[in-house]
C-alpha cells in the first residue's frame, strides 16, 4: 500500500516515527494509502532547516519572489486536472468542485505576484532638521499553517502565497485525511523556483500541531478548522508569543424576504447548502424566510430541487451534485444530529436517512435533508453539522430574522435575498458577521479582499489573503535617520520633531 511521507528540503522523504494514519477513499470506504505522522523531533528538524533557508529567501528582491508566484500560477493551471483528480480521490468532491478548490487558491497566488507593491513602506522627509523617517515591512522568519481537510488545495495556497511572497519560510501541516494535494503543491513550488527548505510539508496529528505551537523559531501560526481547536491553537500560540490567526466553525444564515425572487433564492440555497456535501465553512445551513407565506413558498420550491440532487462518486461524471463526506465518523455524526432534530420536534421534510448507493454501500454517502420549523434551542440549529442538511427557521418579520443571525455564537458568513435596497443596506450595515452577501449565497471575497469571520468563527486581528495577509506575515520596522548639513559643535540631549 502507498505510504505518504513529508516534503523536506525540496524532496519527498519517509517518516521515521513508525506511526501512520489511514487515508480513505470516501466513496468506497476503503483505505487507499497511509500517511506518516511526524514526531516533535521531525518537526523541529524541519523548522531548523527552514530557518536556514529563509535567510537567503528573505533577502531576495521581492520582485523576484513575485516571479516565483507568477511561475507557480502557470504550473497550477497546467496541472489543474491532475490536482483535481487527486483531490477528489481523497476528499470525495466532484471534479468541478475540486477544480474550484484549486482555482480559488490559484487566485491568491495571482494576487501575490504583486508582492513588491504590498511590501512597500512609508517615508517622511524632513520630519525634523535633517531628519527623515521611513518604515520597512520585513518577513517574520519561519511561519506555520495548519490546514483543514475540506479545502486541501485552497487553504494551503491561501497561506503559502502571502507567507512565501513576503520572504518567510513556511511549515505546512495539512490534514492527514487528504494529504496528497499539499505534497503536490510543494513539488510545483520547487518547479516554480522556490529554493529548497523554504516550504516544508510535515504531515502529522496533534503531536505535530503541539510541536508547532511550542517551537520557539516559529513566529506565526495560521489555522482553519473547528472552533474548539481554533481557540486551543490561538490560546497556546499566543501564550508562546506567536502571532496567530485561527478560523473556526460557522452557522451561516440566509434571510429570504417576502419580495425576494423565490426561484433564485431556492437555487442559491441548493448550491450553498448541499454543495461539497455541506462540508464548507461558508455553507448556508440555515434559511430564515420572513413570514409564513414566504416560508411556504420557499419550502415548496426547495423540495423538488432537493429530491432531484444526484449524489454519487466523482467518477460518475460532471453532473454529480455532491459526493460522500470525508469519513465514517463524519457520517455518523451527521446522522446523529439529524435524529436529534426529529427528537426535538423539527419537521423533517426531506428524509434520506436510509440513503444507500448501489455498489458503494460502504462509502460515506449522506443523502440530502431538509428540516422545517426549526427553533433556536435545537441542536441542529446551534451546532455546525458540516453535512448536507438544510434547516428552515421561520421568522415573523425582518427584525426577528436578523436577530437570529446576530445572536448566534458564530459569525462567519451570512446572506440576504431581497429586491429592496433599503433593507439590503440596513442588513449590511447592522449585521455582526464578517462576510455578507446581498443576493449572493456564499460571499467568499476575491483574493484582493480579505476573508475572515467574527465572534467564535475567528480568533486574531488579521484575516486571510488580501492586504491583511501581508500585514500578518510581516512586521514593521521604522527607521529615523539624520544626515545633518554643516558642522555643529557640542552634543544635543533632546530631540525636536519640528522647529
In the sheet with the most strands, the strands line up as: 15-16-17-14-13-19-20
Category from helices, strands and their pairing: alpha/beta
Q: What number is the mean pLDDT? A: 96
Q: Residue ranges: pLDDT <50 for 5 or more in a row? A: none
How far apart the termini lie comes to: 76 Å
Strand content: 15-25%
What is the helix tally?
A: 16
Tell me roughly what share of residues is in helical segments: 25-40%
| Molecular shape | globular
The radius of gyration is: 25 Å
Number of strands: 23
Largest sheet at a glance?
7 strands, mixed
InterPro entries: Ald_DH/histidinol_DH, Ald_DH_C, Ald_DH_CS_CYS, Ald_DH_N, Aldehyde_DH_dom, MeMal-semiAld_DH
Domain Aldehyde dehydrogenase: 14-479
Enzyme class: oxidoreductase
Protein name: methylmalonate-semialdehyde dehydrogenase (CoA acylating)
Protein architecture, described:
The structure is a single chain. This protein has 499 residues and is of the alpha/beta class. Helices cover 38% and strands 22% of the residues. The protein has helices at residues 40-58, 62-78, 80-91, 95-112, 115-118, 154-165, 180-192, 206-214, 227-239, 262-274, 292-307, 328-343, 379-382, 398-407, 421-430, 467-472; strands at 3-4, 6-8, 11-13, 20-25, 30-36, 123-128, 131-139, 142-146, 169-173, 199-201, 218-224, 243-247, 252-256, 284-289, 347-350, 369-372, 389-392, 410-411, 413-417, 435-438, 454-455, 458-459, 474-482. The strands form six sheets. The chain has a seven-stranded mixed sheet with strand order 15-16-17-14-13-19-20, sandwiched between helices. A six-stranded mixed sheet has the order 10-9-8-11-12-22, with helices on both faces. A three-stranded mixed sheet has the order 1-5-4, with helices on one face. It is globular, with a radius of gyration of 25 Å. It starts with a strand and ends in a 17-residue tail after the last strand. The mean pLDDT is 96. Residues 14-479 form the Aldehyde dehydrogenase domain. InterPro entries: Ald_DH/histidinol_DH (IPR016161), Ald_DH_C (IPR016163), Ald_DH_CS_CYS (IPR016160), Ald_DH_N (IPR016162), Aldehyde_DH_dom (IPR015590), MeMal-semiAld_DH (IPR010061). Keywords: NAD, Oxidoreductase. Its EC number is 1.2.1.27. It holds the Pfam family Aldedh.
